[in-house]
User: Fold NAD(P)-dependent oxidoreductase from Microlunatus aurantiacus.
Amino acid sequence: MTTTVSSRVGFLGLGVMGQPMALRLVRAGVGLVVWNRTPDRCDPVVAAGARAVDTVTEVAADCATVVVMLADEFAVDQVLDPGGPGFADLVRDRLLIMMGTYPPAYSVALQAAVRAAGGSYVEAPVSGSRAAAEAGALVAMLAGDDPSVLARTQELLASVAARVVPCGPVPSALLTKLTVNSYIITMLTGLAEAVHLGDRLGIERRRLTEVLLGGTLASPVLATKLEKLAAGDHSAQAAIADVAKNTGLITTAAARAGAAAPLAEVCHRLFADAVDLGLGGDDLIAVISSLEARAGSL
Assistant:
């Protein structure tokens, strides 16, 4: 790939998911320009061939396409400053690919602001953990209404996602992501509860793992989480703070749609408890600590 200004791609946000995604892009030959609020997160991507810059303005000056993988809408506001004096210069004649998980209404408003400033906008949130991001096995959900822009985005995502699912206009990709997350989060919280119950009943975690992975419930994500639980490994593949944010978005979306979401509501409380316990940076499976804390108060 020729790294002219038009073909370079900017990448904002090199967190738990953003860093491995950026690494896959640069290893696929994309001329990548990266920025992160904590600069040392750029180091592995730079070592792979990307160029790090000090400001978002420098990213925009050199890239016609900018991937945004910032933590939440507050970070996006702080970094891009929609409505601020420099916003139009950041997005005019550029494509913003929003790959983080944000409130659907926020995405709609941001799309309108980007378009008003002369830019293009696509939603492309992903489903999967850090391990899936490292393997290029994510599933991306794509929303927008310009076929040429969507095709351009899908081509770029080929190295980071095993599948790209068109969802319709903005914010349909984010609504799909929240629906998918509702299932994944409640399922894995149920796993944590089962392991916690097994602990109290004297069942070894390895034995529980053998039974669960020996039947029809077996899956790569179940195997990964059971392995982490058996080893007491809470290093983040999907961080608790991010899951707590997601459960809040899910329950809000459910309330607005008039949908019942009692499991998601319970999960939201449990993950908020885990954040309060200081576990926000741990893997989501560390929500078992919330259950252990509740059991200790019974």
Notes: Residues 60 and 89 are 8 Å apart (CA to CA).
